[in-house]
């Protein structure tokens, strides 16, 4: 039997797929996510630095939050040999079998940049981002376990002429990310067209951010088809109670 292309893969019967042992819709019970994030800033402003923690004279607020596990679905369709595809959320992840574990991975990138050169004034900005989704899926009959990892890396860069006659509006967003080293020099970190703010002819600022979330799960195979939707049943709420207060 001839297998069809990725375009129709989510409606394909598993009859022609060698990985039919995992084909179908799996209901996932996800544990609470483990999250992490990092950030970095590099710059060349003479009176600029990354924000530092300072003592607070006001009241101390304590915030607390709690996340519960989630229910999700993954639909898996087998490909040729040791390959398969997993539909998760709005993504389709290609996967390969490595021993007894299926590894589904999707990496997406995006880049944007702009440059302005005008009568001795130069401005450049660029942004690059990469998102990665990875599912480790270990089947065992009609049950499975695994882990879902989702991560994002984002880098934003700016460069601008330190001095430019006639350009009173400077674009580099230094004040959004930096604080002054010496407030006596200035309360704000900014690039002014007629004074020297940076240790080069170009003021530079680079901001990097990474974030990731990991969730382990257990899964159960179901007979849901590609057109079926998953509805999580909840207990009906109690009917409203009315009391006679004697007021009319």
Describe, in plain words, how this protein is organized in 3D.
This protein is mainly β and 248 residues long. It has one domain (6-51, 71-219). The chain is built from no helices and eleven strands. It has strands spanning 24-30, 34-43, 48-49, 70-78, 83-88, 91-98, 101-118, 121-140, 143-161, 179-180, 202-222. It starts with 23 loop residues before the first strand and ends in a 26-residue tail after the last strand. Mean pLDDT is 80; it is low at 1-19 and 231-248.
Strand order of the largest sheet: 1-4-5-6-7-8-9-11
**What class would the helix/strand composition place it in?**
mainly beta
What share of the residues lie within helices?
A: under 10%
Write the H/E string, N to C. Answer: EEEEEEEEEEE
Low-pLDDT sequence parts: 1-19, 231-248
Give a count of the beta strands, DSSP E runs of length 2 or more. Answer: 11
Could you tell me the mean pLDDT? Answer: 80
**From the alpha-carbon coordinates, what is the Rg to the nearest angstrom?**
27 Å
Domain module count? 1
Distance between the termini: 76 Å
Number of helices: 0
Q: Sketch the major β-sheet.
A: 8 strands, antiparallel, barrel
Oligomer: single chain
């Amino acid at each position: 039997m001839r297998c069809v292309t990725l375009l129709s893969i989510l409606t394909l019967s598993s009859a022609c797929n060698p990985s039919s042992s995992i084909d179908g819709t799996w209901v996932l019970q996800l544990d609470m996510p483990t999250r992490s994030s990092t950030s970095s800033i590099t710059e060349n402003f003479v009176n600029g630095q990354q924000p530092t923690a300072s003592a607070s004279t006001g009241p101390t607020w304590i915030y607390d939050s709690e996340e519960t596990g989630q229910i999700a679905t993954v639909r898996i369709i087998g490909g040729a040999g040791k390959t398969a595809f997993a539909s998760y959320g709005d993504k389709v992840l290609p996967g390969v079998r490595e021993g007894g574990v299926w590894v589904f991975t999707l990496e997406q990138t995006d880049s944007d940049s702009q440059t302005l050169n005008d009568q001795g004034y130069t401005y450049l900005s660029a942004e690059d981002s990469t998102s990665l989704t990875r599912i480790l899926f270990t089947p065992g009959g009609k049950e499975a376990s695994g882990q879902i990892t989702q991560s994002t890396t984002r880098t934003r860069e700016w460069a601008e002429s330190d001095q430019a006659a006639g350009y009173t509006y400077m674009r580099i967003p230094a004040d959004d990310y930096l604080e002054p080293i010496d407030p006596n020099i200035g309360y704000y970190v900014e690039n002014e067209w007629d004074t020297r703010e940076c240790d080069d002819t170009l003021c530079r600022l680079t901001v990097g951010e990474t974030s990731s979330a990991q969730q382990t799960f257990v899964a159960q195979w179901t007979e849901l088809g590609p057109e079926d939707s998953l509805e999580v049943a909840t207990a009906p709420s109690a009917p409203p109670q009315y009391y006679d207060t004697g007021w009319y």
